[in-house]
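Structure tokens please, single chain.
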Amino acid sequence: MKFIISLILIALLSFAFSLYLPWWSIAIVSFGVPLVIWQKPYLDFIAGFAALFLLWGGLAWYTSSANNHLLAEKIAVLVINKNSPLTLITITALAGALVAGLSALTGSLLRGIIWKKA
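Here you go.
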């Protein structure tokens, strides 16, 4: 139950923060949620990774489908030398997911260090 709450909270707060702050605000959210919701570090990593993979993947797909993936096809040819918008969307989702997952893992491990000293 904590895992699902953490996943949803990271996704919703990341979406809300990214409306007004730079893209890296997802790291702040992913760092903060594990400080509040106690889980094992690997579960925090998976929650942050999955939340941002789904969020950024969904947003990239939604934005790209608005113009029938025309821009994504052209950018995919430039970046990965393939005419595959789905691959570009997956790479975008993986980039955000890695940032969030590692940030959530850092927050979880820092929480453990702080509470061992107390």
